[in-house]
Amino acid sequence: MIVNSSHDIYVFVWCFFCGVVTGVLFDVFRALRKNIKFGTGAIAFQDALYCAMSFYIFTKTVDITNNGELRWYEFAGLFFGTVIYFLHISRFALLLFTKICAGIRRIFLIVFGIVKRILKFVITPFFAFAKLFKKFSISALNNAKHVFKKVYKSK
Questions:
Q1: Span 77-96, mean pLDDT?
Q2: What confidence score (pLDDT) does residue 4 get?
Q3: Distance between CA atoms of 29 and 27, rounded to whole angstroms?
Q4: Count of CB atoms within 10 A of residue 116's CB?
Q5: Does the structure show a pLDDT above 70 at 155?
Q6: pTM of the model
Q7: C-alpha 63, offset from chain centre
Q8: Is residue 54 within 8 Å of residue 22, measured between CB atoms?
C-alpha cells in the first residue's frame, strides 16, 4: 500500500466521483418513477437494485484505487460527491433524464400502437372464422343431439 498525501487525494477524488455517479444513478431511477407508475413490488426491486449497483460501484472504486483498503476519507469523498451533486447538478440532470424517459416512453407507445393495429388487422379474420365456425358447430351439435334423441327413442 502506498502511504502518501498525493495517493490519498487521488483516492478521495475517485470516491468523490463515485458519489456523483451514484447520484446520477439515483436520478435515473427517479426519472423512471416519474414517467412510469410502478407497483410496490417493482419499487422495492428498484430500490434493491439501486443499492446493489451503488455498493458495486463503490467497492469497485475502492478496490481499483486503494487495493480494497477502506479509509475514512473514502466515505467522506462518497458523501461529499453525492451532496454536491444533489445541491448543484441534480435538478438539471433529473429534468434531462425525465425528458429522455418521456421520449422513450412516447416512442414505445407509438410502436406498440402500430404493432397492436397490425396484429388486430391480421387476427380479425381468424376471429370472424372462429365465430362462424362456432355458430356452425353449435348448429351441428344441436342437430346431432336431435338425431340421437330420435334414434334412442325409437329403440
A1: 92
A2: 77
A3: 5
A4: 10
A5: no
A6: 0.69
A7: 29
A8: yes
23, 81 contact by CB (below 8 A): yes
Residues shown for the chain: 155
User: Domain ranges in the chain?
Assistant: 5-154
CA distances from 147 to 25, 133, 151, 155 (A): 73, 21, 6, 13
What the block records as the C-alpha cell of 48 is: 434493491
More confident residue, 127 or 53: 53
pLDDT tens, 16-60? Answer: 999 999 999 999 999 999 888 888 999 999 999 999 999 999 999
